[in-house]
## 1
Amino acid sequence: MVNTKVTLCGIEMDNPIIPASGTFGFGYEFAELYDINMLGSFSFKGTTLEPRFGNPTPRIAECASGMLNAVGLQNPGVEKVISEELPRLRRVFHKPVMANVSGFSVDEYVETVRRLDGEDDIGWFEVNISCPNVHGGGMSFGTSPEMAEKVTREVRRVTKKPIIIKLSPNVTDIVSIARACEAGGADGVSLINTLMGMRIDLKRRRPIIANKTGGFSGPAIKPVAVRMIYQVYDAVRIPIVGMGGVSSAEDVIELMLAGATAVEVGAENLVNPYACRDIINSLPSVMEKYGIRDLTDIIGAAH
Amino acid sequence: MKDVLFKIISNVCIAKNTYECVLEGDTSAITAPGQFVNLKLDGFYLRRPISVCDSSEGRLTIIYKVVGDGTERMAATAPGAEWLTLTGLGNGYDLDKSGDRPLLIGGGAGVPPMYMLCKELIKQGKKPTVILGFNTENEVFYKQEFTNLGANVIIATADGSVGVRGFVTDAMADLDYTYFYTCGPEPMLRAVYEKSLTSGQFSFEERMGCGFGACMGCSCKTKYGNKRICRDGPVLEKEEIIW
């Protein structure tokens, strides 16, 4: 028997698999297909203080081994998340959930976290300072160590729940951002968010996506994720939630060897809605194949 | 919604750049005309959303137009091959509102979903009139198939090479109908919206990520709030559409 349990910021999870924010909604679509309580947890749709429609369409473009998206944080706003989404979610998911929050100012991050803090089902906050698809917020907090530290410090004041800061790969030095988050009081960091990209329609001679640029995700970005997780693991003492191009149990193990304590699965959920179920089901046999008895043993083992 | 492995029985060119593909597999998740399926092709990351032309027990018919690399690959796929397919996606058309003499308006790649809709309406004893719009004669398909169902069929071509010269809206002019259903390119949908005298339902297209409501890639604004074309649509009612 192998042990797939891991502990993330003091909360034990049955396995390290977490569907990534924005690829799993609030869980209901997937709950129709399988019992989502088999997941380690999941990170719900990025929530902001006010409701947002997001960007105009088209928001999606396909790439080799991946996709671009520029949804732009469409969500019903924190009040509706609390009054409508979380009560519905409670009916289908009975484990601590990861609350993904975004903002356009430090105050907005703080206020959104403060309002969600009383919800018992929330185990962790994942603070997204790395959305590439919104203007005047999102990623701009994640590309400067000073801003990253400030957001972390201010959010820290309003919650005792673990705070995980979601980092952008669209920076020269992700290590300095991760260190700033740790200095600001973060309990963990998650990486990587999508890489900013663009595709152009040859017939129309215009960008495919209405927002022009979008975030690149899918199997193609996995080597970037592995590299950044590896570098950040060397630089901080707080746990890392790894993500980027994960589509198999082997990928999960690779990211954990690089330094991840838990692993998020993103784009793959959109292509194979059973992706997380399949990964969790195959994890024990893949662990056995590589001589792993306890997943905790391999965290950062590639160093 | 069900993910099903479908086997290709036939895959033939029936008009210019237009292919009819018959597939064998579990169709139990397909519950209404106007729904779509999402096909996984080797070598492409995202699935291909294609409308259902006809569905019966164990047998699915789709008609697609070759417009890019994905549909080109589909056209080059031989019978016997298998596609993993998410089935039963989208809301589909609501047949209860049709009245006795519904009008069905399909344009180009928007023609296929009209077939199953027409079949179901006739099964219910309704007397549908069908307008099929194309650019030119060599793009016309399924005229005979609709006629065989027992529908009154009107063809419109933009160049007048067959049927009514002009757009589907030109063919609508003198018709008397109780309700309408339409699917086609957005400029056509908009023209139908302007010209139509009754209430009706419109099926929309959008670039999709997942096709089942998770990613918010295909959202649109309606008078009844934000909707996902893939999950809350693709069929919207005339009264809720914001152009």
## 2
Amino acid sequence: MGQPLLEVSHLQTTFFDGKQALNAVDDVSFTIHEGETVGLVGESGCGKSVTSLSIMRLLSSGGKIMNGSIHFNGQNLLALSEKEMRNIRGNEIAMVFQEPMTSLNPVYKIGKQIDEAIIYHNKVTKKEARQRTIETLKNVGIPRAEEIVREYPFQLSGGMRQRVMIAMAMVCKPKLLIADEPTTALDVTIQAQILDLMRELNKKNGTAILLITHDLGVVAEMCERVIVMYCGKVVEETDVQSLFAHPHHPYTQGLLASTPKLGEHAERLGSIKGNVPSLNHLPKGCRFAPRCPKAMAICREQVPALEALDDGGLCRCFLYQAKKAR
Amino acid sequence: MLRYTIRRVLGLIPILIGISIFVFLFVHLIPGDPARLVAGQDATVKDVQLVRERLGLDKPIPLQYLTYMDNLLHGNLGISLKTQQPVIHLIAERFMPTFWLSFFSLAWALAAGLLIGVVSATKRNKWQDYSGMFLAVSGLSLPSFWLGLMAIQLFAVDLGLLPTGGLDSWTSYILPSFTLGTGIAAVIARFTRSALMDVLKEDYIRTGHAKGLPRSRIVWGHALKNAMIPVVTMTGMQFGFLLGGSVVVETVFSWPGLGRLLIDSISYRDYTVIQAEILLFSLEFLLINLIVDIIYGFLNPQIRYD
């Protein structure tokens, strides 16, 4: 497959809250190749969004990347100056956020907000930028694009605003699109439309997508590979078929069991017992052990490593490491 | 925008009528007989009666109101009881010095306040923030008469650069504007800081960064425009108060403004002048509110579409 487009290795992002240091992302490594769609899955607070914001170097104050490297196109993003990083943001790596209602500036017209992304990254006149804006809006399926550019965000529905956000992200033809829960805030019918749109853009422009979601249905629909995170660590990485056919990590199994399936009538939907531990009270040993139905003695003592499985996937669990050792 | 503006202006009409009634009734609401007041304490009952007829105070109140409005629309605000001059002249003479003083004070206060507020908000908890807020708290706590006196001592008496008071040339504006604007600059700085800090936490600011915009463009463009609404409200109110004339600063600098005129007329019970000043202040506030509303419309499109 050649050199990956994005290579995150041993990323550790820490939030400092007074004297406490909390590792929101702990030793996370993964790669994304050109044109690939990779899902990043996990419950709220597992470090998915922090991972994506670390890639963009847009962590809020208090958050700091302590360790690791992020290579994009062979360039270490962590070594770039703020100005060099600005040339990457919105230009080579773009981002779509969860909340289309609040992610657009309420006091600027749609056209202006997309134009400026073009103007800051390309030597173009305002008129050329506007033309490209209208073109991109049409590409993301916005009707009356010529009129919409003169409207304000509050005049559009949530689905339309998310289309605008996607247009804004795609307008400089980035190589990588990070979509952080892009459909969570939308109605189901609109969700399908937005996913279709992203898949189409991926096919047409060859844009790689890092899709952050907690919705396994979205993963099944969109992704080729999946990374499952729990408490700031990657617990499983595999291709999407194996994930649904035979999930390895008990956490992944639990996630799948708590997703309703068509045609099956379960009395009760499966659920993972307990809550995600808070980062300042992490259990000793495997972070999932207290909630794990298959936990063994060793799980409460030692932290398992992320190791390769026979089918090519990766899993962080003693169950499989024990088997292999035998 | 035009429709929004017209709607705002039309909305003023009932308020204007209300104000005119209130101001008209002022003479009847104060204790004592207005005719006796005009005629003087020593006047005979017959004289008072004559004055009452001359002023039309014996006519029914609605008729008096119409007469009052008719005079008002012709620029006739009555005669000062103290100086026997037309009130409109007294007010006109004092209005421009107060207006320009207010304007210059507000202009520099706005420039300095915005700058300090933006720097403090973007350099939160760094030395820039601490020094900005130290200046702001000082500006708020220093009494203006003290600040004015100190400024006179330094710049007028010791250095001899600027006049101590009065209004002779444009240099006369400098010290009073400085004194009046200090407190306002401090309030604007604090408002700007807190409003901007709130806005900087918004999702669309993150979107701006994700687009790769420079920080300066995000702060001065995206963030400040959203943060301006509370600042504009407060600035408008401050301008309203300034136009009423600042008694303290006008006294310190012997400024020929409306504030001192008001104090003089109150101590002399010059009711026609007081009445005219109340009317003027009300109109000024109305006008400023209208301007503030129009600026809102520019700042927040949602307001003008509602």
